[in-house]
């Protein structure tokens, strides 16, 4: 009897990432997480990983041997499209070319000399750039760029309308589920912040006694997390005594109190009711260990569950829909949504 041959497993055959394809690669190294670097796909593996070669990162100090790495599929994307000419505006989400990579930021100032100040959430830095080193921020979602290039929007409108009509029944069901979730949160005395439009306030807004806020930390293992708290009283210039809503003292006798500077305090974000499901690669906040942590949806499981990837800890965890919220940043006294593309 002729022995049967063992079937060979096929390599990853994503049409966007064939060997030789030009791509951008997201770094996971400390201090560089979230930045993208140009490179080329060398080969696909039999898993969801790819071998890539960087254009401007090298293994040797002389710069003669381009760096090669094996990366996950969610770390690579095609080269984003770019308008030949664009007038950038205040509060627009952009990518800025810095240190051989593209970094996501928000325009906080439009200067008279044609340059733009860009704020980077990951490093809490603001750096000035010229127009040629900026591009509109786009997300690679389900094999397409959002938002599309200017001029392509009209072609997409009919398709969007069809999808909206098709999913109307599902939306009504999700609305009912979200209404139940809102009632549950109200019963837990969660502050009512149901307005969808961004809240604006002066750049030098002060926090008043009894105000509900969120507080961040620079401690190892807690960077990027925001904890719910209440302002107790001011304790000096740009500093407040706060009381956490969930963290307790070591002897568990009372809620923990700390003195925090205003750099680490922000108002509670406006609560946006998510009627639609979150999408793959959408930036979200996930409620975990009594805090909100910024992450990216890496996989949409059977509703209402999602896998969320956290860049800072290089972890991937599963969450319920009710434990996620759209990510927003508090910049210059107003809330800014990282990717306006997701609202299309």
TrEMBL record:
<feature type="domain" description="Agenet">
    <location>
        <begin position="15"/>
        <end position="84"/>
    </location>
</feature>
<feature type="compositionally biased region" description="Basic and acidic residues">
    <location>
        <begin position="157"/>
        <end position="177"/>
    </location>
</feature>
<feature type="region of interest" description="Disordered">
    <location>
        <begin position="150"/>
        <end position="177"/>
    </location>
</feature>
<feature type="domain" description="Agenet">
    <location>
        <begin position="86"/>
        <end position="142"/>
    </location>
</feature>
<feature type="domain" description="Agenet">
    <location>
        <begin position="276"/>
        <end position="332"/>
    </location>
</feature>
<feature type="domain" description="Agenet">
    <location>
        <begin position="205"/>
        <end position="273"/>
    </location>
</feature>
<protein>
    <submittedName>
        <fullName>AGENET DOMAIN-CONTAINING PROTEIN</fullName>
    </submittedName>
</protein>
<feature type="region of interest" description="Disordered">
    <location>
        <begin position="1"/>
        <end position="24"/>
    </location>
</feature>
<feature type="compositionally biased region" description="Polar residues">
    <location>
        <begin position="1"/>
        <end position="15"/>
    </location>
</feature>
<dbReference type="Pfam" id="PF05641">
    <property type="entry name" value="Agenet"/>
</dbReference>
<dbReference type="InterPro" id="IPR008395">
    <property type="entry name" value="Agenet-like_dom"/>
</dbReference>
<dbReference type="InterPro" id="IPR014002">
    <property type="entry name" value="Agenet_dom_plant"/>
</dbReference>
């Amino acid at each position: 009897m002729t022995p049967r041959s063992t079937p060979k497993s096929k390599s990853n055959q994503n049409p966007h990432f064939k060997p030789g394809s030009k791509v951008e690669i997201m770094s996971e190294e400390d201090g560089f997480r979230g930045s993208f670097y140009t490179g080329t796909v060398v080969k696909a593996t039999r898993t969801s990983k790819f071998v890539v070669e960087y254009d401007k990162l090298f293994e040797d100090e002389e710069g003669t041997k381009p760096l090669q790495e094996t990366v996950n599929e969610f770390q690579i994307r095609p080269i984003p499209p770019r308008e030949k000419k664009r007038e950038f505006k205040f509060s627009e989400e952009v990518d800025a070319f810095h240190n051989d990579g593209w970094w996501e930021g928000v325009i906080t100032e439009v200067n008279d000399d044609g340059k733009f100040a860009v704020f980077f959430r990951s490093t809490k830095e603001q750096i000035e750039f010229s127009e040629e080193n900026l591009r509109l921020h786009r997300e690679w979602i389900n094999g397409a760029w959002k938002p599309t290039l200017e001029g392509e929007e009209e072609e997409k409108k009919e398709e969007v309308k069809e999808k909206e009509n098709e999913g109307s029944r599902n939306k009504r069901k999700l609305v009912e589920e979200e209404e139940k979730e809102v009632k549950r949160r109200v019963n837990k005395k969660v502050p009512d912040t149901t307005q969808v439009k961004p809240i604006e306030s002066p750049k030098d807004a002060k926090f008043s006694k009894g105000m509900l806020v969120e507080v961040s930390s620079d401690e190892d293992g807690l960077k990027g997390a925001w904890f719910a708290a209440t302002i107790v009283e001011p304790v000096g210039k740009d500093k407040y005594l706060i009381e956490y809503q969930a963290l307790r003292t070591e002897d568990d006798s009372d809620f923990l109190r700390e003195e925090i500077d205003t750099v680490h305090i922000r108002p509670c974000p406006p609560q946006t009711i998510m009627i639609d499901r979150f999408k793959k690669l959408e930036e979200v906040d996930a409620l975990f260990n009594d805090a909100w942590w910024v992450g990216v949806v890496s996989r949409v499981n059977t509703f209402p569950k999602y896998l969320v990837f956290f860049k800072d800890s290089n972890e991937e965890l599963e969450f319920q829909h009710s434990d996620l919220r759209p990510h927003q940043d508090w910049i210059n006294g107003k809330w800014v949504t990282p990717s306006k593309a997701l609202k299309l």
